[in-house]
């Protein structure tokens, strides 16, 4: 038998060399670039980038997109040690991160927001919820288009609707707010129970789950972010938006600056630019009023805006989660 | 038996240290978190879970569906490996089966869910071929199929590797002694394979038990415990403490696994020889196994074929015009090159360091009398049980203040720990099946232990080493759950970019990037397969 020691040496040798490289390649700390973590959609990120580039910040920042759940986990676990200098995220989530880690810096905002978000966040965009239908699937199943969320509780839609789970996704909250606001807790619960029955396996953990199922023709009707449905329609898919009679509720996404020991001097300027300079284009893309003296542009927009009458907090979300779970 | 030498101890020390820092410490961190309730430390989180009937039902569901999946996977994997080693299969067919069975391993699990929906859903490719959906993909069925697709390649690789080291001459002997076929099969194949079969069952069970990508897509109303964990850790409201308690409870099956494996260990057989001998001819056997394996392989390919359809159509399922626009758009993105480079670096270093580590651990475990050797089995089971998400999050907590944070190195270390079990088991299987008198002979000939390992043992397990390299590389390329929390803007990978695309609901792009990873992995696999067969052929030639 021929002995072959080469393999072992090659293996051991290269791993050491590569390990060394790994260590080196691993510390590219570019102090010049401001790092922005965002859970916002592609379109919103594009708006932010354009505003920042127009103001001459090109190559001075980097936007890292991530899912709501990953960003949420990072905020809670890392606190001020997070890599990012600026965060854009659902406002209620920023609030709970602030409560747990006291991690954001106070900001001066000139415009006055419609809601009180605290001094450490600047509202960036409002996301509206809506029903959307796949017209071809609806036709194939010979079903009438729904007008309200309550309609979806009708047994004729069994197996044909999909909505996100409020335990996992904040998009689902827009649905539950609509139900509870319109029908109160008692009737609301029975509607939620019927909705659960009708959706069966199509209660999604991701907020974008329903649009995925509706796009794939898996179900005919979904509830989710209005924007994603509008976009699918623009892409030529047979997707139509239905603004529910219960109203289009909205979720605000805000900008916060992480309070770090060593702050990049550009951080606050960039955050301000994101909040102010990008706002007009953002409003056109996401037609939801966030600041006083804002008017809606004359673009495609939700028919029936409504707001929950108290501030959206984690405690409220917990209450609504409990109602959702109790509805059987 | 040989005596322990200083060399063995010197090798064991860094290994023990490594696992203490990167496995035990993070796990302690999780245990610590699970006891936290508000400002004080109690068992409150656990008692709340135990009183929660929905959670208990999910736990039970997980046990049931994972056991079913593990049982079916183990049987299929055994039959497939048997086809490869103990029957005559046409060379081209052999290549097709081998490649298609391991195909799912080359893809991120995050892709599986979409693939299942696009294949078996109402508008799915297979549904359209069959006319109506063959069954509801949501719930138990979907989970079962998903888990089998996910774990079959791993079980197959383990079995395939272990069968390499079975002495086929025993079959001939048994034949000559006029044993009945079943008896022959039992003594010459099944019994020597028992430990591996057990290991494969436990491994696939735990992989299914802890995966959350598949239930997130096709779980439907069939709640499983991995979803409870995901919900607690990453739901609309983050409850780390509750999640940590769930994670710790998910370790219970692992403890049972360790006991089972220890029991099965007594069936381990070492062979002095693993020469290839001519098989006893049997046309019926050859045809039956060829047909069975081909059917399995065709099913897998048919399910994943959707990957090749969706990205190249304008808007599946409503506009089926062929187009390259989606593909071009993806390749226009400037970050992709950087991500790809990072992925390749991470996967290569993981493969080299991980293989070295797993090999050393297996060597110390099987071929030394060290007192600490058993501990590597525990590490192996533990790494397998900890869901990637939990491992990643615990790294995030533990290394938050260290310089490791945001580096390529922490990703590599996380991968090495996360995927340690299979390469370690492969190496162990190979080493245990080798003649145990080699070291004694070496000692008598005044060779050091290390020299014997280097000059005799390692060259005899070349094929396994290449398979280990391959396993680590593929998994480092496809993993999402383990690394999603520890990648930074500078160390983004292709697989974590897929997770980002999922957030944007860009399924076409996800399929394209998955194909990208698939092609890379396929190339690496082919090269490593070539190198490993080339190596063994040379060995055979030298022997004759």
From TrEMBL, chain A:
Pfam families: SBP_bac_6. Gene3D superfamilies: Periplasmic binding protein-like II (3.40.190.10). Residues 1-19 form the signal peptide. SUPFAM superfamilies: Periplasmic binding protein-like II. It comes from the Bacteria. Keywords: Signal. This is Extracellular solute-binding protein. It comes from Lysinibacillus alkalisoli. The lineage of its organism: Bacteria, Bacillati, Bacillota, Bacilli, Bacillales.
